[in-house]
Amino acid sequence: MKTLKDLNIENKKVLLRCDFNVPLKDGVIQDDTRIVASLKTIKYIMEKNAKLIIFSHLGRVKEEKDIEENNLLPVAKRLSELLGKEVIFSEATKGKELEEKIDSMNEGDVLLVQNTRYEDLDGKKESGNDPELGAYWASLGDCFVNDAFGTLHRAHASNVGIASHMEGKSCFGFLVEEELTALQVLDEPERPFMVVLGGAKVADKIGLIDNLATKADKILVGGGMSYTFLKAKGLNIGKSLLDEENIEFCKEVLSKYGDKIVLPVDNAVTNEYTDTEEYRVKDIEELTEEEMGLDIGPKSVELFNNTLKEAKTVIWNGPLGVYEFEKYRKGTEEVLKGLVDNNIKTILGGGDVVAAASSCNLKDKVYHACTGGGATLEYLEGKVLPGIDCIK
Predict the structure, then answer these.
(1) Which domains does the chain carry?
(2) Residues with catalytic annotation?
(3) Per-residue pLDDT reduced to its tens digit, 7-32
């Protein structure tokens, strides 16, 4: 892959696509992980006396009311603090104001352009990869660096659009390089190679299961999606989450790969989807019609840990319980701890499982935690990612 050190950026105007899609509440950043993750790339470009122009999206912008709550100004302020240098902010995403601010930049300056998805108000020009918008943004710089791992699976004007007008002058930043290098470990994993799948619905993981079932030595299934597999085995799952449309798919998977699939044997159950009611631990076969499982139980934790301690490589996507509720994150935390304690090469596949690992202070103790859930998922499904394809 073509990386930042392969591109001459000295004294150039560098266009950089970052993923600053951070959680905001009342204009305050709740988690700056994604900003911090791009600092290595940003500082490297600044050290090359380049003029750095950064693009990022934030949230979804479908109508006028979405504009203010998805304003990138708080990100510009936080980035200024982290760099110890004022970051110039352009409220405009195109036109005279933006061009004048770029023209007045000095070497080593950093400019952040307002949320690229503001352009979606005018016919989804950003997320629809409008060719004119991509060409315009490309005209603002001399070269392009894509460091937004979380959007590699999207063909937007601010990534694929710019890169398509920068042939031979585009590359990946250090964050994307690090992410892809970590994921390439899975192309020829050290065995036994095991997969941990959690999260809500089977529907979200069909491509992943199809692609990894033939490669993995074991697939451990927890979270809400495990109940669809248990239902496919003929068990009563009470009011637990069920992806009814994919019961037949689960039956096929169990029929083909039953010796590889490991399912929970007990769970933490309750009658209401809430963090306030006390839960009970029950074997899977003991659920009543009024109960729902919200986490794996201690026997399942032991089963999962005993299985995983034989692994050499593990990829994990999705939590094993409703980790947003503190009392139902225990299963995820205990299995994560088991992997860390046994020094097993573990890659967390972005999204909720990384957030769960952060809440348990275990994220920095695994081999790699991906910053983008959707991009990781599609990579693991074996799909071609537009953000990679347009540069490699």
Answers:
(1) 4-176 (3.40.50.1260), 188-380 (3.40.50.1260)
(2) 34, 201, 351, 374
(3) 999 999 999 999 999 988 888 998 89
